[in-house]
Amino acid sequence: MTRLAGCYQALDGGNTADALVDFTGGVSEPIDLTEGDFANDEAKRNQLFERVLKVHSRGGLISASIKAVTAADMEARLACGLVKGHAYAVTDVRKVRLGHGLLAFFKSEKLDMIRLRNPWGEREWNGPWSDT
After folding, report:
1. Is the pLDDT of residue 119 over 80?
2. Staple partner for 116: which of 56, 66, 88, 112, CB 3.0–4.6 Å?
């Protein structure tokens, strides 16, 4: 990779999965959520979360992004705080128990959570479970 770009400092933009493969020699598995009807199929979403949880627990590197369809769409800031075209690092994947104390221990309801980090750090998620 450095031979292609001259040096690491010259790297700017591009596909995160390609960069991870180039830097680590690993294998990437891109998943397009719009193609799999994940929005309407809870079983598929649950299966995907279990896969992501498994990869994360084994030390895999995971990134996520919102595809920008046009050049004008690039860098579009959504109402929730996320930015189209930015690469987000997945920093944690957990099943969080709801409730407090013994209620949390015995209550079986859990929430699937994925923590993302925007390396540019200029905008933050402002929806449910945000800092505010």
Report:
1. no
2. 88
Q: Could you say which of 40, 56, 86, 126 is catalytic? A: 86
| Assigned domain for 63 exists | no
Write down the catalytic residue from 15, 40, 118, 126: 118
Question: Is 126 annotated in the active site?
Answer: no
Q: Which domain holds residue 16?
A: 1-27
Nearest to 48 by CA among 58, 67, 37: 37
> What is the SS3 assignment for 116?
strand
- The whole-number pLDDT of residue 79 equals 87
User: pTM for the full model?
Assistant: 0.75
Cα dihedral value 46, 50, 51, 56, nearest 10: 140
* Active-site residue, 86 included: yes
